[in-house]
Amino acid sequence: MKRKDESVPSLNMVARFKKLLKEKDREIKIYRKSIIKKNRTIFFLIREGYEKKLVLLYPNDVEGVSANFISEEEGKLGGFWNYKICPCNRENANELRKNFPFTRPRVIGLTPAIGCGDRIGLATPGHIRAVRKFNVFPVLAQQSIREMTRTARTPRDVLDDVSWSVFQEGYKKGFASDADHLKTEEDIKSTFEAGFTMYTLDPSSFVDDEADKDDLKTLKEKFERIPWFDLNCDKEKFLDMYLGKEFIIEDGDNSFKISFTEENLIRAAVKYSAAIAHILRLKRFLDRLFKDKKYDLEVSIDETESPTKPLEHLFIALELKRLHINIQGLALRFVGLFEKAVDYIGDLKEFEETLRKHVLIAKKFGPYKLSIHSGSDKFSIYPILGKIAGDMIHLKTAGTSYLESLRIIARHDPELFKEIIQYSIKCFEKDRASYHISTKLSMVPSVEKVSDEELEKVYLDRNPGRQVLHVTFGSILTLKKGEKWIFRDRIRKVLLDNEEEYYETISKHIERHIRGTF
Ligand code: ZN
């Protein structure tokens, strides 16, 4: 009998399960790509109404794997088979990751990657479809502490949503998870506990932007106050190491020289040394958490006032090396403007020239990847990235998938979209404070003047509308009346009602990012 049970094809059993529910007047959607068998148990994801659930089908004499999943409903499926319907909750997500390692994030090292952040928690299947086509490695769970705070999601929520989506799509090629812009040990702790594998350390509160303009006297005073002890160094040793040193950085036809003079060295040290000491503190904290030291590390200094000069980049690389901080990625502040939701603003030739230098430094003094933050919608620079550094790029995108989600709302629920526009306009001045963007409210037409057919074009294809919607995602996704979300649940419903179109829309958009870059 056992043999006979085993030979029942999974699809047959899944169809039988669907029929059984239909007989009880329950319509479900089965995510066919999720169907998988383990220890004679068939697993797959379904959606009933607006809720996704995990289903397990298993013969009478098999319990094993199914026992650890918490069910909300169990029953018989013919004589020899049983079913279990399980909520997609935290406990079951843990169990899923235990049983199916492909739903767990992993360490990626120097593999080039595209970061696909998702603020709503439903976009990941679209991201997976895009990276599948191009065979690019994805960082699917990617969220900064700031974004998590603004969307009222925890690190665990972010990771769980991704694990379920990976399962839904049957995506087995692996993904990473990026705890982005971490500033404190507390940030690290909460993301570590959730299971993140990549840590992007942001020491920006220790970067002294004033150093760009300080005169030599001020710089020298500040130089005395650098936390030398934390840097395993003292002033004399430091000067001895760098002062007067010349570095020739070459690769084939390209070469350039960097020499440390008293002024440029002290300026770089004053600007970045306290930040480097902070990175060292956070890195030691990570090492204590990860006893096996298996995690990916990125350092982000992309939020400084002025672009990172090649000399500053070299200085940071040398200091990280001296302190044995082995990084897989570094996010610099590049020339030009990387405003949210719009294309690169700046001189492409200048971008290319400076990128070339940064790439050479990253290769010679790492190697590590160059991480491009606010990387979405920068279509004019992708060919340059691809040409010069395709094999060492980590391109991060996030907000753009939120905007693509709103495209679905504009098409299918214009009334809801108009409410979102109105509330976004209302929150814009407050929410824009933490972003560098050039949109002014006067550039955004009021919603009464726009017909339903034009909503997408006016607010999602043109820059001012895009930026207003981009920076206000937190206000939209967390507005509540009593216990009820005002927008969040309605947005989710429209997206799920139009699920396939939604995934395709997200995928198409992410493909445009991948095509030129990798
Ligand atoms: Zn950043």
Concise synopsis of the structure shown:
With 518 residues, the protein is an alpha/beta fold.
Description:
It is a single chain. With 518 residues, the chain is of the alpha/beta class. 46% of the residues lie in helices and 18% in strands. The protein has helices at residues 2-7, 10-23, 90-99, 124-134, 145-151, 155-169, 185-194, 216-224, 235-242, 262-289, 310-322, 348-365, 382-389, 399-412, 414-431, 455-461, 463-471, 473-478, 488-497, 499-517; strands spanning 29-38, 41-48, 51-59, 73-77, 81-87, 113-116, 137-144, 176-182, 198-201, 246-251, 254-259, 296-300, 329-331, 369-372, 393-397, 480-481, 484-485. Strands 6-7-8-9-12-13-14-15 form an 8-stranded parallel barrel, surrounded by 9 helices. Strand 12, helix 11 and strand 13 form a beta-alpha-beta unit. The radius of gyration is 25 Å and the shape is globular. It starts with a helix and ends with a helix. 43% of the residues are buried. The model is unreliable at 1-6 (pLDDT under 50). It binds zinc ion (ZN). Zinc ion binds next to loops.
Give the SSE layout.
Blueprint: H1 2-7, H2 10-23, E1 29-38, E2 41-48, E3 51-59, E4 73-77, E5 81-87, H3 90-99, E6 113-116, H4 124-134, E7 137-144, H5 145-151, H6 155-169, E8 176-182, H7 185-194, E9 198-201, H8 216-224, H9 235-242, E10 246-251, E11 254-259, H10 262-289, E12 296-300, H11 310-322, E13 329-331, H12 348-365, E14 369-372, H13 382-389, E15 393-397, H14 399-412, H15 414-431, H16 455-461, H17 463-471, H18 473-478, E16 480-481, E17 484-485, H19 488-497, H20 499-517
Parallel strand pairs: 6-7, 6-15, 7-8, 8-9, 9-12, 12-13, 13-14, 14-15
Antiparallel strand pairs: 1-2, 2-3, 3-5, 4-5, 10-11, 16-17
Zinc ion is lined by residues 181, 300, 302-303, 331, 373.
